[in-house]
Write a structure and sequence with these properties.
mainly alpha, hpI Integrase, Chain A, 3-stranded antiparallel beta sheet
Length: 127
């Protein structure tokens, strides 16, 4: 795992990967995160479940919240209700899409010579 984190070039991508690994949420559930949907003190996220559309509280690692704090200090839009994940280019800033997140992860995989997918990061039943 350390090699994957080292291959990532910014705090946003490290935060996203850390949340995917530690929380087990789906890629789209994490991408739907809004400001106000996280609690730094409790280390939890509130995500909209893909299947039920329920708003579920999910624990995540303290490390993920450190990466999130570092990413947020870089000046992304942060008003309540705004998307958390944004493209990095200031002149064309917009919320990050699933395909952009998947491309980021694919680039990291290519650098490592591995072939994981975002879905591979999710916990499997009976694990």
């Amino acid at each position: 795992m350390a090699a994957i984190f080292a291959s990532l070039k910014n705090h946003r991508d490290r935060a996203m990967l850390s949340f995917w690994l530690s929380s087990g949420v789906r890629a789209e559930e994490l991408l739907g995160l809004r400001h106000g949907d996280y609690d730094f003190g409790e280390h939890t996220l509130v995500v909209t479940s893909k299947g039920t559309r329920n708003r579920d509280v999910v624990p995540a690692s303290a490390d993920a919240f450190v990466w999130l704090a570092l990413y947020m200090r870089e000046g992304q839009p942060a008003s309540p209700g705004d998307a958390v994940w944004w493209t990095l280019a200031a002149r064309n800033r917009r919320p990050l899409t699933y395909s952009a997140a998947r491309s980021m992860f694919s680039r990291a995989q290519q650098a490592l010579g591995s072939n994981w997918t975002l879905h591979d990061l999710r916990p499997r039943p009976n694990e």
